[in-house]
Amino acid sequence: MLKAQSGICDEPNLHGLTLFCHVMTDDIDVMRRKIARIPSIIDELSDRFSEAMLNGFIAIGSEYWDILYPEQRPEGFNGFPELRAGHRNAPEQVYDLLITIRSDRYDANYLAARTLNEWLGYDIEIAENVHSFRYLDGRDLMGFVDAPDNPRGARRRSVALIEKQQSSQFEQGSYLFVQKFKHDLKRWDYLGSQRQEQIIGRDKVTAEKLPEADIVGVTHASKARLLDKNEQPIPLLRQNMAWGDTREQGTLAMYFSCQPKAVINWLKQRYFEDEQNQYDPILDYTQAVINSSFFVPSRSFLKASIQQSF
């Protein structure tokens, strides 16, 4: 049975460390072998820090995929969609690899990242290094429960992972869209809780949706709901974590799905105005400074890739 990389569907951890990388070597065979070994290294680290529930994965960037695996490409795997509408701008940044480690110990993440960096050596360059963390009881730094409608239980796997009938070649893989948001918390905090609830569309304490009668205008909850225009469920699993310090802060958002087109449509309905000239109002208070797309192959695909001749 094919097995997905850990970290895609795992439950939230206290700490995260994400590396956005560029590949610096032209030796494709070496990179295939090194990348294929990474899930096993993460397993070994997970056994060593079992109490910390360490997990993680490596994902391949859209452009680098064709260099690494030129004869095999997941259907619909493209770059990050162009999201440009007025002040709502999410420009794409291209990275070759993304490595994420999560656990309940900051030091375990640090050691894991160093171990993986040593394994990859001078063949990669780390362009961005993002430390993230679980904030309070799973809240965004804006003070609201993050993704309260996220799938739970077995449904996490069904929305995030490709099934055999969809693609036997890429079974248990996942399409990944990443956005690093930087919040304007000074402007946000100035609004006060009541106005914030109107923008989000949920109670700040309970995360329950506000009654329709109490809502004025469009809300983030309505624009980011996991239903499409035909009221069909959007297969999307969010693995978001807070990042930052006292100077700047935000959310590292990760969207996993077995259907990339559905996620792209979900992003567009948030950024672009609808027939009533309305968009996701939370975008007035946060800016996505990193926007990238990746594919997270199954362990079996990575192992098989080093046995094949392209």
From TrEMBL:
Family: Belongs to the DyP-type peroxidase family.
Key words, A-Z: Iron, Metal-binding, Oxidoreductase, Peroxidase
Pfam families referenced in this protein's UniProt entry, alphabetically: Dyp_perox_C, Dyp_perox_N
Source superkingdom: Bacteria
Positions of the Dyp-type peroxidase N-terminal domain: 46-134
Entry-linked SUPFAM superfamilies: Dimeric alpha+beta barrel (SSF54909)
Protein name: Peroxidase
Cofactor(s) needed: heme b
Gene Ontology MF: a single term: heme binding
